[in-house]
Amino acid sequence: MTVIKPTPRVFLVGHATKPEVAGVFDRVRGWFEQRGLLVGSNMTGEIEQINTTHPDLVVVLGGDGSILFAVQAMGDRQVPVLGINLGKLGYLADFNINELEQLFDQVLAMPQLTSHRMMLSVIMAEPSGATGRYLAVNDCVIRAGAPFRNIGLTVEVDGAMLTTIVGDGLILSTPTGSTAHNMSCGGPILQPDMEAIILTPMGPHSLAHRPLVLGPDSRLVIAALPTSVGAHMVMDGQVVRPMPGGTRLAIRRADVAFQHVRNPTRSSWETLVLKLKWGQKLV
Asked: Would you say residue 278 lies in a domain?
């Protein structure tokens, strides 16, 4: 279990394109500077310096997309992330600015508030021989692009052929990402600190294809058929790569985990009900 130091080295990240962030950014930066905790900050989107300053905690101002961006920048050097919601939903951004100042000492004293959440490792191998390695907190989505025709994908699990899916694409999600694109396409909601890999077909052309939950140690290979013109791979909505026919994705549990700092005043299920309105009347 990660323990945030009593006097952590803090790196502050702000979403530069959100007009409301600038004033709050200065307030939060000054608050951490007064406490002698700030080792770096950035609002320009060029946050590779997170790793060079070796923080113990990354504080993100913005929304869930800002958190995903920061986690992508950290790569294999993950540290706890505390999100301050200045976005629309903020499912991962669990604090507001007042809660940060009121609850920060409590967060430092309660290591159990930092949950380790499974991430996905994705290795892309293109027909040209080019390769790339990516990490996903939420999901790896394979989806149709222009000319927006059906795409065909073969799915292997642990070295055995499972199926061929033809349709609009496929979502491979972590439990954390189960409340994102996966949920909107009819996939199951999982407790976020579980370990599993969710496969959710998008607009499949067969009633036999339904969402599937696999064990965390499953190793998958997804290959695009030659007819999959326009297919793309999208990682966490942050990284987009063309996926021409013959491209193969090797997907497994990543060696590192997303370290999410929870708000001590509410549970993850309260967040599901309050922010996503799960189980509530629609009128």
From this structure: no
